[in-house]
Amino acid sequence: SACVITQRKIPDKLVDEETVTHLYRVTKHSGCVMTGMIADSDMQVSRARYEAADFKYHYGYVMPPDMIAKRLADIGQSYTQIAHMRPLGCCLIMIGWDEEKGAQLYRVDPAGFFCGFRACSAGTKQTESNNYLEKKIKKNSMMEQQEVIQTAIAALSHVMAVDFKPSEIEIGIVSENNPVFRKLTESEIDEQLNILSERD
Fold this sequence. Notes:
Elements: E1 2-7, E2 23-27, E3 30-36, H1 38-59, H2 65-79, E4 90-98, E5 102-108, E6 114-116, H3 126-136, H4 145-160, E7 169-174, E8 182-183, H5 186-199
């Protein structure tokens, strides 16, 4: 299983909460979380969807997550070479299910660097989060879906030093049992938070 998690910040009380998200579906079997400038994030997700649709049209099968990440990294790198174009002000973490390789996790930086990870983070407290994940995740260990989700929630709670309500976080997941990328509902998130609080 692979999952992505992000804090859901509503910038204004008048904003419709349903329209604010950092989680996006790219293909049926892959999705991403965006960190950084929202307008740049929307543009990069649109480009990812276009590239995936174009790939499926030409080759007849769904574009694997690693190919999407590589293509976005190539495009991002080209922006650094052109004087009248600025690099994108956002970082993408993509998860997806590959028929051959299983669950995948990739991170794409604005400079055009991309790499596969067992666990990673992006944002202001990424160093603390990565240190936490290094301690929690053992090398070559396989984790069940529930354990993956709870580790992600625990890492975010640890670095932000806050206990989250279900409406304050967003979680996206793909797994072997259900390889379709989907967001967890508030009730599912609440269930995971309860299990985590009882465990602690």
